[in-house]
Every structure is written in structure tokens, then in C-alpha cells.
Specification:
The protein is α/β, with parallel strands linked by helices. The chain has a single domain (about 5-90, about 155-230), classed as 3-Layer(aba) Sandwich (Rossmann fold), CATH 3.40.50. About 45% of the residues lie in helices and about 15% in strands. Strand 5 (about 175-180), helix 7 and strand 6 (about 200-205) form a beta-alpha-beta unit. The termini are close together. The relative contact order is 0.18.
């Protein structure tokens, strides 16, 4: 059983993105959440690897999943098992370049709340009674990280290369998980990840969008617990 488990949050999220999983898994695993802000995924990965134990399990959601793939590219021998949640191995769409650049300008001009509330958060979640509280939490996480982190993470995502070429090289037990109604990273992207990583397990969480860790915490935690025991 793996004793060290590293979580990598999504864009403008902190440890609260994984709080239900931390509450459940920390009884049996030494859990850590690494929040990184640099203008390249390569530098983000180096920062994580510098403080990580020699061997660890790695779970990343959205941007965190992309960062996990960069870590796999840099130091695959250190990762014992991998979980990719609501993410993609593809490069950023060319159309996103101008959008991200303009969002950075707006956020640096004091419009962080507006960008998060009106442009980013609406695509995150399915409709549910919990949606307003989760969206408020997303905004609070973004505020706590601030405009500089928004800028750095946006540039890293905007300028990233694809990781599709390394999928066939991943040999550790791998979980590919997504919300069945994720609009930001649709299930088709996870079908591609599952097909590219031989022997991986694919789980689609019903009644969840881009943040199943918060939308359906019990089902997500159960999938992670099964993956950790494989």
C-alpha cells in the first residue's frame, strides 16, 4: 500500500478542492497538496519533485492532471501510481490564446471576481442543490490565490505542449476519472486517456461536472480508495 499521496489542484484552486478526499484518505495515507504557480509546467513539476518524497502516488485534477503528466515526463520512476481527474493530455486550443491573454489583463486590472464568476465558473458544475455553495468556494479559493497566481497558471496552461506522446509510456496503475457531465474536459478526452494508457481504469461519475471531488465526493473518494489498493 502506498503511504505517500500527493494531490495537485486545478486552476485557481487550493487544498479545499480535495477536502472530502483528504478527510477520508488521511487516516491511511500521508497526504499532501501542492499548489504551484509558475509560468511553465516544467518549472511547476520541478517544484513539486523538489519537495516530494522519493516515491509517491499522484492525483491531479484539471490543470493538476496536466501537471501530473509533466511529472510523469520528467520523473516517471518516482510515481508509484497515477490518477488523472477531469483533465486532458492535449495542448491548449489555439483559440484560447487570445482569451487567456485578455483574461490575464482583466484580472491584473482588478477584475478577478468578474472573470471567475462570469467566464470560468459557469462551465464547472452541473445543476444541483450544492452548486451555489461549491461556486462560492471556487471563488473564495481564487481570491485566496490572487491575480499573480492567475497570471502564472494561465500562461503555463496557454503555452503548454501536448502530452499525448507519453501516454503509452505510463506503466503504473492509473485511474482516469471524470464527471460524466464535464463540459470543460468532456468525457471523450478521458476515453482518449484511457485508450492511450494501457491497463488504466476509467471511471465516469454520474451527476457531476468538472469538479467531482466536490460535486460527488463519496463516489470520487471510493474510486480513489480502490485505485490506491490496486
Amino acid at each position: 500500500m502506498t503511504s505517500d499521496l500527493i494531490f495537485l489542484p486545478g486552476f485557481m484552486c487550493d487544498k479545499r478542492l480535495f477536502q472530502p478526499q483528504l478527510d477520508a484518505l488521511s487516516r491511511d495515507y500521508a497526504c499532501a497538496v501542492h499548489i504551484t504557480a509558475n509560468r511553465s509546467l516544467a518549472a511547476m513539476a520541478q517544484a513539486v519533485l523538489f519537495v516530494a518524497p522519493p516515491r509517491f502516488a499522484l492525483a491531479g485534477l484539471s490543470m493538476g492532471g496536466i501537471l501530473a503528466l509533466e511529472i510523469m515526463a520528467q520523473a516517471p520512476e518516482r510515481v508509484q501510481r497515477l490518477a488523472l481527474l477531469d483533465t486532458t493530455a492535449r495542448a491548449d486550443a489555439p483559440a484560447n490564446h487570445a482569451i487567456r491573454t485578455r483574461q490575464i489583463e482583466d484580472v491584473l486590472a482588478g477584475k478577478l471576481d468578474d472573470v471567475m464568476r462570469h467566464e470560468l465558473k459557469p462551465a464547472y458544475l452541473v445543476d444541483s442543490p450544492e452548486k451555489p455553495a461549491i461556486l462560492d468556494l471556487c471563488l473564495d479559493m481564487a481570491r485566496s490565490l490572487g491575480p499573480k497566481v492567475f497570471q502564472d497558471q494561465s500562461i503555463a496552461l496557454r503555452d503548454r505542449a501536448a502530452y499525448t506522446h507519453i501516454l503509452g509510456q505510463i506503466k503504473v496503475p492509473t485511474l482516469v476519472l471524470c464527471g460524466a457531465e464535464d463540459r470543460l474536459c468532456p468525457p471523450k478526452l478521458h476515453d482518449d486517456l484511457h485508450a492511450g494508457i494501457k491497463g488504466s481504469t476509467l471511471v465516469k461519475i454520474d451527476h457531476a461536472g468538472h469538479l467531482p471531488t466536490l460535486e460527488q465526493p463519496r463516489a470520487t473518494t471510493a474510486a480513489l480508495e480502490k485505485w490506491l489498493k490496486e
